[in-house]
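Priority: medium. Attachment 1 of 2:
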C-alpha cells in the first residue's frame, strides 16, 4: 500500500490568503489539527488549529501562521508503514503527498492511514507477527518464503524497511497465518536469522488491537 493509493477525497491544501476562521472551520469539519499550505501546488508549510484558533486580527490569513519548519512532504510511492514514521516525525495529523516534480498530488489523513495499517496487520485474521533483522545482502524473499512454508505456515502480510542508523541492514516484518510458530523459530535460528521480536499469542495480538482501537478513538475525539 503506497501513499498515492490512500489519498483523501475530502482534504485539500489551504492558500496563503485563506482566512484563519475559514481554515479552522475546515479543520473542525474534517477532524484534523493541521493542513498544508500550497502556492501553485507547491507545499510551503503547515498551519495548526491551535495556532490559528485565536488570530491576532479578526481577518488574519493563514500566511501569518505557516510553520515552515514543518514543510514535510512525502513521495507518492512511500509505503504505508513508512508514512507512520513521517506522521510521528512531524507530529502531524495529515501529510502532503507530492510527485517527482514536488507537485502536490493530495493529502493523507493519519486516521485513514492507521485504518489501512490495521488491515495490513490483519487484526481480524488469527496469526502471529514476526520481526527479523538481517543484512540487505542476505535478504531473499524466496528463501524466507521457503522456510515459512516448510513449517506449514503462510505469509499473509509483509513489510520491509531499512534499519535507521544501521547501514545495509533490513527489518522484515511478517504477518503469519498461525499462532504456533515454534517450528519456524527453530528453523530460523538454525539458519542464523536474527529474530528481533515476535507476537505469537492471541492475548498479545488482542492487546495490540485494543491499543490501536484506543488510539483511533482518541484521534476521533
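Attachment 2 of 2:
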Amino acid at each position: 500500500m503506497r501513499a498515492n493509493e490512500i489519498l483523501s477525497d475530502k482534504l485539500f491544501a489551504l492558500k496563503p490568503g485563506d482566512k484563519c476562521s475559514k481554515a479552522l472551520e475546515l479543520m473542525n469539519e474534517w477532524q484534523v489539527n493541521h493542513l498544508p499550505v500550497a502556492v501553485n501546488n507547491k507545499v510551503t508549510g503547515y498551519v495548526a488549529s491551535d495556532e490559528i484558533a485565536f488570530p491576532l486580527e479578526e481577518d488574519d490569513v493563514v500566511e501569518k501562521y505557516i510553520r515552515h519548519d514543518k514543510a514535510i512532504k512525502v513521495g507518492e510511492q512511500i509505503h504505508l508503514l513508512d508514512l507512520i514514521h513521517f506522521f510521528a516525525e512531524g507530529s502531524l495529523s495529515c501529510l502532503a503527498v507530492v510527485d517527482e516534480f514536488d507537485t502536490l498530488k493530495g493529502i493523507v489523513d493519519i486516521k485513514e492511514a492507521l485504518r489501512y495499517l490495521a488491515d495490513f496487520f490483519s487484526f481480524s485474521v488469527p496469526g502471529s507477527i514476526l520481526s527479523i533483522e538481517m543484512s540487505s545482502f542476505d535478504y531473499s524473499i524466496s528463501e524466507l518464503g521457503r522456510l515459512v512454508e516448510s513449517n506449514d505456515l503462510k505469509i499473509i502480510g509483509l513489510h520491509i524497511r531499512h534499519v535507521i542508523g544501521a547501514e545495509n541492514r533490513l527489518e522484515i516484518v511478517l504477518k503469519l497465518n498461525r499462532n504456533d510458530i515454534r517450528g519456524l523459530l527453530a528453523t530460523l535460528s538454525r539458519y542464523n536469522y536474527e529474530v528481533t521480536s515476535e507476537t505469537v499469542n492471541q492475548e498479545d495480538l488482542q492487546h495490540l488491537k485494543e491499543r490501536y482501537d484506543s488510539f483511533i478513538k482518541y484521534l476521533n475525539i
